[in-house]
Design goal:
Largest sheet: 5 strands, antiparallel
Strand order of the largest sheet: 7-8-17-10-14
Oligomer: single chain
Low-confidence stretches: 1-36, 41-62
Helix content: 25-40%
Bound molecules: 2-oxoglutaric acid, fe (ii) ion
Distance between the termini: 61 Å
Order of helices and strands: HEHHHHEEEHEEHEHEEHEEEEEEEE
CATH topology of the largest domain: Jelly Rolls
Structural class: alpha+beta
Mean pLDDT: 75
Length: about 350
């Protein structure tokens, strides 16, 4: 286990004594569209910080998300000598970042989290910041910490002998995840116990065009009115509460005029999840364990266009690993000759 001895900080000081200039981040392999989006977001707002650059990153527990304020507090709690503390406060103070896209420099963006890319300050701050994390959990048999993730392993010898046990396990898991959230809060660390997401348009990559073609071929539904691909990432503790994918007309009539309701959901798991993260359908009693490359497809509406409430579903918390899904919501308009209507509301 890491100890914050003077020696470690002296090493840190040596490494960083020459590094007071603002780091420059180059975006490579970025399409013009993405870069100009990024560019306009940056120039239209002074709210954005380094988070914007890392918006698709899953390194939620890494030092990218290390808030400087929280880190300083932690060092203080660890009785870090004042001389080093002040040096580090100074090091983070007024740090800015400039994006370089093909020689075009953005204006400077204030950085209040993360450590410069490639610096050895990163791993060290990570260790200092998280070294006491495993101790907060009561229940798990093991907690593993990685630079980019955390794994909470619950007792491997749980056999479901009686129904009550399910409730007990759930209570234990929830208790520990709550502690994790509180820990994150007091360390000024964001914990993404919901999900992080982004949307990908067909224009972004030929792969997405092929995906749309594949979905259309397999479902016999048109993708003309479908939504962009919704990519979602869940870290440890990440979940999605029970919900329905379709909308009700009274919620947003304009939405319905455009393409109709979400007739069907196509969801591809882009990763395996070591433990947890299943998609559950509580009303129909089914659950799907994520498996990289596999897909779930279901109709949200009956053939009459009526909402099918049996499609209520949720994503269980991830306990070990990381979960990635890509979802395509397919709409009603254009399916008239592809999925025949029925007058029977139950069909
Ligand atoms: O991640 C999952 O398993 C479910 C995701 C989902 O239901 C949604 O994004 O609407
Ligand atoms: Fe959903």
């Amino acid at each position: 286990m890491y100890k914050t001895s003077d020696e470690n900080f002296i090493t840190l000081l040596e490494h960083f004594s020459n590094r007071f200039t603002a780091p420059k981040l180059c975006i490579n392999n970025t399409t013009d569209v993405l870069a100009s989006n990024l560019w306009s977001k940056l120039s239209n707002s002074n709210q954005h910080d380094i988070e914007l650059v890392c918006e698709n990153s899953d390194l939620k527990f890494s030092t990218h998300d290390l808030k400087h304020q929280g880190f300083i507090l932690k060092l203080y709690q660890l009785n870090c000598p004042y001389a080093y503390l002040f040096w580090i406060i100074n090091y983070f103070k007024d740090r800015t970042i400039t994006l370089d896209y093909q020689g075009h420099l953005s204006k400077q963006v204030k950085v209040n989290r993360g450590t410069p890319q490639g610096s050895c300050f990163g791993p060290k701050t990570y260790i200092v910041n998280h070294f006491d994390l495993p101790s907060i959990f009561d229940c798990p048999s093991e907690v593993h910490l990685y630079v980019d993730d955390l794994a909470i392993l619950f007792s491997p010898s749980i056999y479901l002998k009686y129904a009550q046990q399910v409730y007990e396990i759930e209570t234990r898991i929830n208790k520990d995840l709550l502690k994790l959230a509180n820990y994150a809060e007091s360390n000024h660390q964001p914990i993404y116990n919901k999900k992080t997401d982004t949307w990908l348009r067909d224009e972004d990559s030929p792969v997405l065009v092929r995906l749309s073609q594949l979905i259309s071929a397999l479902t016999n539904l048109t993708m003309e009115t479908a939504e962009e691909v919704h990519v979602v990432n869940y870290g440890v503790g990440g979940y999605y509460s029970p919900h329905l994918d379709f909308y009700h007309k009274w919620e947003n009539p304009a939405y319905f005029r455009k393409a109709g309701n979400r007739i069907a959901t196509w969801m591809t798991y882009m990763s395996d999840v070591e433990w947890g993260g299943a998609t559950v359908f509580p009303l129909s009693g089914g659950h799907i364990v994520p498996k990289k490359g596999s897909t779930v497809f279901w109709y949200n509406l009956n053939a009459s266009g009526e909402a099918d409430y049996r499609t209520l579903h949720a994503a269980c918390p991830v306990l070990i690993g990381n979960k990635w899904v890509a979802t395509k919501w397919i709409h009603e308009h254009g399916q008239e000759f592809r999925r025949r209507c029925s007058l029977d509301p139950m069909v």
